[in-house]
Amino acid sequence: MILTTTPSIEGYPIKNYLGVVTGETIIGANIIKDFFAGIRDIVGGRSAAYEDVLREAKDTALAEMQQRAAQMGANAIVGIDLDYETVGQGNSMLMVTSSGTAVII
């Protein structure tokens, strides 16, 4: 399945629009990652632990959206948008949502 943030796919005319599809995931960051991320904030640098959690959440949301599109008979999703939010008490959870339009090309 082709996934793209653009509204069309060059060289592939859209034959049918099937509707909006979404994928959501909420992932908690554990206290050890928080501790090491805090140290990184003090000394500078990137937090690989948080980057891994963020990447995992994005991949999960996209996979869920792709599965829903496949169930509709789509072979592509166009106009994909990703949104990242912190939720929960003390913003301890990361929510990633993806949305796009399921199409047949």
Descriptive overview:
16% of the residues are buried. This protein is of the alpha+beta class and 105 residues long. Strands 1-3-4-2 form a four-stranded mixed beta sheet. Helices cover 35% and strands 37% of the residues.
Provide a quick synopsis of the model.
With 105 residues, this protein is an alpha+beta fold. It is built from two helices and four strands; from the N terminus they run E-E-H-H-E-E. The chain has a four-stranded mixed beta sheet with strand order 1-3-4-2.
Roughly what percent helix?
A: 25-40%
| Total helical elements | 2
Q: Order of strands side by side in the largest beta sheet?
A: 1-3-4-2
Shape: elongated
Q: Report Rg.
A: 17 Å
Short descriptors:
single chain, alpha+beta, four-stranded mixed sheet, 4 strands, 35% helix
Write the layout of secondary structure elements.
Layout: E1 2-3, E2 16-28, H1 31-43, H2 48-71, E3 76-87, E4 93-104
Parallel strand pairs: 1-3
Antiparallel strand pairs: 2-4, 3-4
